[in-house]
Amino acid sequence: MSVDVKKPAIDIGIVTKDIDAMMTFYGDTLGLEFEGAIPMPGGGTMNRFKVGDSVIKVIELDPAAPAEAAPGGIRGASGYRYWTITVGNLQACVQKAADAGARIVVAEKVVREGVTIAIIADPDGNWVELLETS
Asked: Is there a domain that residue 4 lies in?
């Protein structure tokens, strides 16, 4: 038996330590559409941002999580280390993020013919890869 997938996308949940900075980053800096906020069972709020058919769930827990993820991006630890958004305006996205003070981890870089990436750290240090194809 295999998974009976019903949505052509994957959603991701990010538990944050700085909700205000994360809301600004995903809403204003990246310009993702805010879908809404939902109370979390046990305390907290899930803030949902649309990315095509996917949803980025930025979660503020109450009480806060007792530990933080290991820093360091791709080589910092095992487990989830980055995720990707495919865009059609990579250069403009990177410039907007840089202008907003976001840390550009990897500047625009051609990784193979027809594929350019950049990696930006969100305020909590999570890596967001932006990918553009030509």
From this structure: no
> Phi, psi at residue 77, to the nearest 5°?
-175, 170
User: How many domains would you assign to the chain?
Assistant: 1
Q: How far apart are CA 125 and CA 72, in angstroms?
A: 8
Q: What is the CATH number of the domain that holds 66?
A: 3.10.180.10
Domain of 16 in residue numbering reads as 12-133
- Each residue of 66-90: b (16+ CB within 10 Å) or e? eeebeeebeeeeeeeeeeebebeeb
pLDDT along the chain (134 residues), means of 10: 92 96 98 98 96 97 91 89 96 98 98 98 96 96
Beta strands in 53-95 (DSSP E): 54-61, 82-86
User: Which backbone phi and psi does 70 adopt, to 5 degrees?
Assistant: -65, 130
The per-residue pLDDT for 34 is: 98
